[in-house]
Amino acid sequence: MNPVDIAFYGHQFLQQQVEDLPPAGWVAPDACGTWSVKDILAHLRSYEQVLAEILSQMTDPTAPTPRLDRMRADGEAFNREAIAALAGHSPDEVWTAYESAFQIAQEKLARISAETWHARGILAWYGPTYDLEDFLVYTFYGHKREHGAQIAVVKDHYRRGMTGQARNGN
Question: Least CB-packed of 24, 56, 65, 67 within 10 Å?
């Protein structure tokens, strides 16, 4: 596998899902639990920032990882904080923030050697049998596919003229 391609295709899938999403679809609750599409993108932005930290540490073991540390210490609080950080921003601003974080991670991703990508246990906290590529596939590509599918459901319901209440069966 090519890690740059993996990241690109996850991003591309997400981009396709938000394309043509009506303004109301961005902010309607319940796309993922109580999260709106805008919240999902704020959440995914925070994961891109974590990835950038991890990749920085691959080339500089002394690089700080405050977001990763926060995520590992209390994932729920990490998610709440990520969403709160962009709560007052427009959907376009949140998408731009996500894309910016993605681009930063992509730049760092391209600097990682093939041996590093395939070194088992390189992320000891993730598991001794996994390599960095596994982490990218499961935590980023798979994560974007999951949330992208949720966004697609929202988009489909708006395309059909349904509201958030109709989506939830109320």
Answer: 24
pTM metric for this prediction: 0.92
Residue indicated by tokens 């395309």: 159
Nearest in space to 105 (alpha carbons), one of 148, 74, 143: 143
CB 159 within 8 A of CB 29: no
Rounded to the nearest 10 degrees, what angle do helices 37-59 and 142-159 cross at?
160
Residue 25 near residue 155, CB atoms below 8 Å: yes
Per the CB < 8 A criterion, the answer to whether 120 and 14 are in contact is no
Please say whether the beta carbons of 122 and 61 come within 8 A: no
Torsion sign, CA atoms 102, 48, 105, 145: negative
Task: Please report how many Cα atoms fall inside a 13 Å half-sphere around the Cα of residue 84, on the Cβ side.
Answer: 6
Within its chain, how far is the Cα of 46 from the centroid? Answer: 7
pLDDT tens digit string along 55-96?
999 999 999 999 999 999 999 999 999 999 999 999 999 999
In contact, 101 and 49? CB cutoff 8 Å: yes
